[in-house]
Amino acid sequence: xxxxxxxxxxxxxxxxxxxxxxxxxxxxxxxxxxxxxxxxxxxxxxxxxxxxxxxxxxxxxxxxxxxxxxxxxxxxxxxxxxxxxxxxxxxxxxxxxxxxxxxxxxxxxxxxxxxxxxxxxxxxxxxxxxxxxxxxxxxxxxxxxxxxxxxxxxxxxxxxxxxxxxxxxxxxxxxxxxxxxxxxxxxxxxxxxxxxxxxxxxxxxxxxxxxxxxxxxxxxxxxxxxxxxxxxxxxxxxxxxxxxxxxxxxxxxxxxxxxxxxxxxxxxxxxxxxxxxxxxxxxxxxxxxxxxxxxxxxxxxxxxxxxxxxxxxxxxxxxxxxxxxxxxxxxxxxxxxxxxxxxxxxxxxxxxxxxxxxxxxxxxxxxxxxxxxxxxxxxxxxxxxxxxxxxxxxxxxxxxxxxxxxxxxxxxxxxxxxxxxxxxxxxxxxxxxxxxxxxxxxxxxxxxxxxxxxxxxxxx
Length: 460
Prior knowledge:
CATH topology of the largest domain: Beta-Lactamase
Helix content: 55-70%
Largest sheet: 5 strands, antiparallel
Strand content: 15-25%
Number of domains: 3
Order of helices and strands: HHEEEEEHHHEHEEHEEHHHEE
Structural class: alpha+beta
Number of helices: 10
């Protein structure tokens, strides 16, 4: 079968081939059964005729009448009458080397061989069933040969073949109709799927395949395709939002840099105070852009599954002490406290994990008033290690809690812009934690503070 044969042609070819094999097998079986029945029928007729002939000749023998040729001729005539009533049988009699026949001019085969047994003989291109009999009258021998007439069998076979031929035509017509019906049933939903998929592109993912029966193969296929389209739709929307937000976030620092550059070129470069301020603001925006690009690079590498982890065992308590020590150096406006800090070895990417914890502390410091407390608690419970960071900041409204891990989400645009926030911090933290098969939870009460819990498996 050709590789480029369509499904439709494959189905039709397979169905018709199967039907042909089945029909040929059935016809062969019918012919064999027919021939077997004909064989039994002819043998039965031969036996009946032989019984009648034997009975008649025995009556002549017991009548004490001299056996003469006249009696034999008379009996031959009677045999012909018998043969006429059973047209599929011929009777031959051989007496005193003289041959008397109802159908053949001479014996079909050796009449004195295989007595009382059925023989299958080809005679003048005819296939015959023959039975030879021997009757003795004192010293006289009479040979009787009874054979079938192949013409009737031929006619019956021809009639059977004609019936099979026309029934084959009828069955073929019915089969073609069934194939067309099956083709319509199978291909109708496939054509609908193709038609729907052709309408789908990256600019319009609103189309969905109509699922008629979700339990059959095509229904399951349609369901999988719809789920794939849903994922693509979500991915494209996320990508478009990502590009839009990234462009927006980069536009602001570039505008600030361009503004100060234009200001300095306009004459402010001769004013030392303006020069210092301009350089300070330009450097600040450059740092902001560098920070944003690092986070965008991290997200891009994660989305493309090329983020490589440098998994190493390390003591989590030492990492937390180092983290708090460095945070206190750069932030002297808050009180950092460590609670418990139980010793435990974790297998993780130490640098990424340090980055995630630092981002959480940095986020807490942004929204916690001066001289308030920020605590970090680290302990091991039931095969999991927990790290909890609490602050006494302004908190997060309940309606915004479900969005805090979304990329570029900023609950207060004006205030966060002043704090150099791009809405990527918590999203990056969540990605890092999930990269280590962990979970992160956040609880907050507005104007009372926020608590972030990290749960890591011991195997991490």
